[in-house]
């Protein structure tokens, strides 16, 4: 975030709850997926991404944005579903014995 953007946020009462809007390209990069995957899962394929639509029309004819906090929740939810599926299938999930920052 640029200093000018920080100044704008600092002037708002809701600055503490600042949750930036991301473009489909930013979400694709964050999730390490293709932009087509993001578009598909914003409108018709499961799991559906939490999306905000600006403008008229389905799919690519409107402007799509995503709240960073909602994408974090989406990731956590998918992780929970993944663990639950593996637990029900009888597969054991490895539990980390140390944190990534420990040497």
By DSSP, the count of extended strands is 3
For the CA atoms, what is the radius of gyration? 18 Å
**Secondary structure: helix percent:** 40-55%
Q: Which structural class do you get from the secondary structure elements?
A: mainly alpha
Major sheet description: 3 strands, antiparallel
Record the strand order, biggest sheet.
1-3-2
Count of DSSP H/I helices: 4
For this entry, give a set of tags.
three-stranded antiparallel β-sheet, 103 residues, globular, mainly alpha
Give a structural overview.
It is built from four helices and three strands, in the order αβααββα. By secondary structure, it is mostly helical. The chain has a domain at 23-74. The protein has a three-stranded antiparallel β-sheet with strand order 1-3-2. A hairpin with an 8-residue loop joins β2 and β3.
